[in-house]
Amino acid sequence: MTTAEPSDLADWVQRTRQGIAEGRFPARAFNDQSVYDLEQKHLFSRAWCFLAHESEIPSAGDYVTRFIGNNNIIVARGEDGTIHANLNMCRHRGNVMCKSEMGNSSHFRCSFHGWTYKNTGQLIGVPYMKEGYEGRLKRKDWAMVPVRIDSYEGLIFGTLDPESESLGEYLGDFRFYLDLYLKHGEQGCEVHGPPDHWLANTDWKICAENFAGDGYHTPVAHQWGFHLGYFPSSGSTHSQGWAASVPGRGHGVGLGHSPNFPPFGGFPPELAEEMKTVFSAEQTEVFSKVRTAVGTVFPNLSFLMQPFSLVPGEPGVRFVTMRLYHPVGPGRMEMYSWCLVPKGASKEYKDAAYRAYTLAFGQAGTFEQDDFENWAKVTRSAASTMVADVDFPYSMGMDSDPDPNFVGPGHVVTPYVNDTNFRNLWSRWGDYLANEV
């Protein structure tokens, strides 16, 4: 992999930011040690990052362990029902406190020297406290390191920056589009089963970009889906729709629309009617036209919603997948993938949606295999010495005017196949790397 000299890195970031404004982005960014290190230092140390869905820890004592950058975090529900997040590290000598990725425990006990904490992070037990410390150690001063958290519609986010803006400000107008994935009925959504979880030789940014609205690849990488009847659209109509982004925030969504696709098609009729009472009038007008929706919450949380025919040619079942791309090194990431289902839906529909998700975007899903094969090859190419100064074109739609008839917020252009969302994504990424956020 290529690596920039530290003295050159700041200049490279500024040149990259200028290139983004002109419709270019460097290939090297997708597999470079110095870029990865800078992302850890300036991006993941400050941005709001997704940790878990509240339905993963429904009961007192439930917990999961997740990551923000290179920091392992315990997200746990306390005995009072409140959710807490703490660095997964003992304050005595730094041992990992919780070695399981999920479970239930009211307390965590260090396997090294036995320090014991409530799952809220409070230190309550120190072996040989009186004999060893002779009153010099106060338990209240040595709690686990807390992580600031907040939530939106069941999504728990954390930030390592105590001075950062609120989560509401961070998400901004993109909450309008997030509701498309999260407010399926009055009870909202829940995760269905544990997340699929695997390692891949893929850079996280390729995935985040793809799910920020890349409808351009679908008729090529997934063309079999059209030919065999798994899509309720065709290659010629798939590009229709809108690309919506929140300027200056990095968030973006691609909304695919097919002229003959029924409003809220793929949902049970009773659920579709219930959603109309949950969404605002503007949301209902937009969402009822949407066939496929792929979106990314900056930096590395993405969603996809689409109908998928369990039997080719038959009406599709609408499913939602939520996915997190956790970087573990240059050109390498840990993938988490969940299925979201309407909490108030029937078991029959939940099972059908989960099956559609598994066949399409589970770890061994057909679409997932298409994507990861391409993403891994892009990542490998990005490490080549010859591409150190090679840029990719991001100029599609640079002259597009906002759609004056679209009632949703943000910068919205048509068609859905467009680079506008990507330029917005990389502009925000550049702001963080330049330490200007």
Automatic annotation (TrEMBL):
PROSITE patterns: RIESKE, RING_HYDROXYL_ALPHA. InterPro entries: ARHD_Rieske_2Fe_2S, RHO_NdoB-like_C, Rieske_2Fe-2S, Rieske_2Fe-2S_sf, Ring_hydroxy_dOase_asu_C_dom, Rng_hydr_dOase-A. Pfam families: Rieske (PF00355), Ring_hydroxyl_A (PF00848). GO terms for molecular function: 2 iron, 2 sulfur cluster binding; dioxygenase activity; iron ion binding; monooxygenase activity; oxidoreductase activity, acting on paired donors, with incorporation or reduction of molecular oxygen. Keywords: 2Fe-2S, Aromatic hydrocarbons catabolism, Dioxygenase, Iron, Iron-sulfur, Metal-binding, NAD, Oxidoreductase. Residues 48-127 form the Rieske domain. SUPFAM superfamilies: Bet v1-like, ISP domain. The keyword NAD applies. Belongs to the bacterial ring-hydroxylating dioxygenase alpha subunit family. This is Aromatic ring-hydroxylating dioxygenase subunit alpha.
